[in-house]
Input
Amino acid sequence: MTVLDALTDVRPVLDRELRQRSRTARSMVVMTIFLLLALGVAFITYTGETASFNGDFGIARQNVGRSVFEWVLILELVLLLFVVPGISAGAITGERDRQTLIPLQVTLIGPFGIFFGKVLASSAFVLLLVVATAPILAVAYLLGGVAFSQIVSGILALMLIGFLLAVLGVACSAMLRRTAAATLIAYGVILTLCVGTAVVFAVLMVLYAVSSDGNSPDSILSFLTPFYWNPFVLLAGAAGEVSDVTGPWPLSGIRSAFVETQTMNQRIVNDVVFEGPGFDPNFRPGDLPLIPLWLRSALALIWISVMAAMLGVRRLRTPSRSVTQ
Amino acid sequence: MREPMFPTNGSQPSPPPPPPPTGSPLPPPPAPIDLGALAPPSAGAVVELLDPSEPRDDLVVEAHGLTKHYGNLKALDEVDLEIPKGSIFGIIGPNGAGKSTAFLILATLLTPTSGWARVCGFSPVAEPEEVRRRMGYMPDVMGVYENLTVKEYLEFHAATYHIDRSEWPSLVDGLLELVDLDVKRETIVDDLSRGMKQRLSLARALVHDPELLILDEPASGLDPRARIELRELLLQLQSMGKSIVISSHILAELQQMCDAIAVIEAGQLLASGPPGRILAQLGVGRSVRVRFGDGIVEEFPVAGDDEQQALLRKLIVDDDRAVLEFTTVDKNLEDLFLQITQGIVQ
Output
């Protein structure tokens, strides 16, 4: 199948989905709530920051801009984590419920076209939501403390996360028979990505503290690996910054924690290499991962989404051993 | 550029194959009918049936030993089918008999456990895309997309068959005219009556001008007028050269329009062939009810008018019996159905 064939297959489903979605009130309601919440968070953050201001107005204004930017992005991510499974996990099961999947499967559109038509339709809505909130982020930019490139990379990261969440949601929808079950599993997967990764990290750290003398050079960095599947880490890698100035900034906080852990690991490595036992002949002092945090996280999430997509497309392939009507 | 589908040049369907010679008397129910007696292929044809690499030009559907198991349940068990091109072929059987399973296999949706099938010359398992280009499938329940008009619904399905956008207007016009829904073009699909939805579903199955239509219970839930309209439409499609495979619970309608039928129960093919021939072979084609002067009523099976006249002469002249009433009783597909099926539910 060529890329052109794939796009030809995707387009009818995408066209129809967008047409139907644009005619329902639900899309407008969701977007209105999304915008109102983003505005509310921006307003609360702004007033909270300015109320506690005493000192240099220029620095304070930049801090306010940074706070608004990061908290609005965090809110958008949290909303996407709730909204995207809600709209994507019913994509295929909804077709089954309406008895429209079988007529679609006997057409020339293959399982790839059905699957990614649904994914793109869900992603298009995410795109709309994220773009609609761009003016709020522009206010943060005007206040200062945020580079234009960070706003762009923050928006792009949200879009990527939205797309990957849609892939996971549609895959759940393809593999399960009922919308409720698909939605539940999709939320479960996302909860695992967001909270489960932190739990795994905590467990690994406890095990490390119990079983090691604290000087093993190959442990702490690998313990961070589960976090790469965390959407918050991807967003932090894309939009957070590491600076001397500190504030109530969640994304910069996450990114700084990673850098600190890497630095701590570097110190342990240096101690081990030059003073302690467990000399690693392959390790060069000064080695730190060259791949940026956002890219490592993006690759991890893309990998899991590709796996999910392969399972979902496979489930939609016909003829199959059983037909779910 | 595709050839315009509607109106057609009225091409005639190829004639059905000549009936095979009748065999030995059929066993009484509930024993299954000897299929060899109903449709015995020639010695050469047997070889072809066993060789899936040799498609037959005169058949639109071939199946041999088609079997589908769901765990211990045998949804289809060694079913053989030969459906001539241009014919209307009815598949009848009680609920759960395996009709829909057979349709799902032929429609490229389900893989058989064993056996093989060929639809329009292609394997629905190995070459599903080739089959889909040539086959239109209408499931028993019509799915409806919310908020789409009739026109948009057909345009969407035209797109799913990669039909060029420039052809959509004439295609949709032709289809809507054919199924008599042209005045409903801008109506939301969900607002149509059930009969209209069924006709729209038929139009959807025709959107890529297939040579074969597989229709699963198309008349289900329709009122008498809608059923008659649907039957007329199917006959019209046959006159346009389409082959139609249809299942229905309304046996009288199948008898009126089908060139051949297959009776399936519990996954097994009980009988196959032209309805008249099966009725005759089962001895349920026609009988005569006679009431004699002494009040006794008897029923005699007869093959045709000549035999009926001979019977009357024999009773009055040869046997010298007083005949008060001599009534012809024509049996139909329902009688056949009741006689050869046992009401087995799997």
